[in-house]
Design brief:
Blueprint lengths: L4 H13 L7 E4 L3 H15 L5 E4 L2 H9 L13 E6 L3 E2 L5 E2 L6 H10 E9 L12 E5 L4 H10 L3 E4 L1 E2 L2 E2 L7 E6 L6 H9 L4 E4 L1 E2 L5 E6 L2 E6 L6
Helix pairs in contact: 1-2
Bound molecules: arabinose-5-phosphate.
Length: 231
């Protein structure tokens, strides 16, 4: 069967935006799947939905601005009601790899502030174990070699992400080291070790942050809830 990833992304986005309620503060994700959610939200705003949105990247902020989605400064809120974002990989336990688009740091800050973190994905993103997708690690440029060596100590082979012939820079002006750890058997343990590396600003392992994954599969959606989370 030919899987149409784009259609699955759209289906997941359409389903996810149904969870948004009048008056909510809404986190806007980044990437090709979150893009469809932002388009849907813009439609809903045109039809009377009143929300205030917090984008997770400059890219998503520009898109939301163009589509007249009302924005609110992240410093003006203590928490975010719902965020709809994508992922590069997810497991049944709702652990994720994110950061393929380089927005993982803001995405993780927004996720940490969010009461209902909804991940939307096409069916190719579902894996039994994380790690086929190389883990994005955000690092301050000054610490890049040091962090690369610490990643080696943890059996990770890292490459500094390139774009148009030079090092890719995140919205914070940092580098991304895409790191091959092989199959990650214990993502929470690896996340803890990475959290302890000086100069490593953030990594794309999202552990215990997602409440729900809505996956497009062929012409339907499949929902995975965090254990004990059923709304
Ligand atoms: C952006 O940095 C990422 O975390 C994205 O959410 C992730 O890469 C998924 O992107 P796609 O929806 O484009 O696959």
């Amino acid at each position: 069967m030919i899987i149409n990833a784009e259609n699955e992304k759209k289906l997941a986005a359409k389903e996810a935006v149904k969870l948004i309620r009048q008056g909510q503060v809404v986190g806007l994700g980044t990437g090709s799947t979150a893009y469809f959610a932002i388009l849907e939200i813009a439609d809903m705003v045109r039809n009377g939905l009143q929300i205030k949105a917090i984008p997770t990247s400059v890219r998503s902020r520009e898109l939301a601005g163009k589509l007249n989605i009302p924005l609110i400064d992240i410093h003006a809120v203590d928490s975010i009601d719902i965020t709809i974002d994508g992922a590069d990989e997810f497991t049944r336990e709702l652990n994720l790899i994110k950061g393929g688009g380089g927005a993982l740091l803001r995405e993780k800050v927004v996720a940490a502030m969010t009461r209902e973190q909804v991940i939307i994905a096409d069916s190719a993103k579902k894996v039994d174990k994380l790690g086929k997708f190389h883990l994005p690690v955000e690092v301050i440029p000054f610490a890049a070699s040091y962090v690369m060596n610490r990643l080696k100590d943890l059996n990770g082979v890292g490459t500094i992400r390139q774009k148009d012939g030079s090092s890719f820079l995140t919205d914070q002006g940092n580098f991304i080291i895409d790191t091959d750890f092989g199959i990650i058997d214990e993502p929470a343990k690896l996340a803890e070790k990475l959290d302890a590396v000086v100069g490593l600003v953030e990594h794309g392992l999202f552990i215990n942050l997602a409440h729900k994954v809505i996956m497009g599969q062929d012409n339907k959606t499949v929902i995975f809830n965090k254990p004990g989370y059923n709304t």
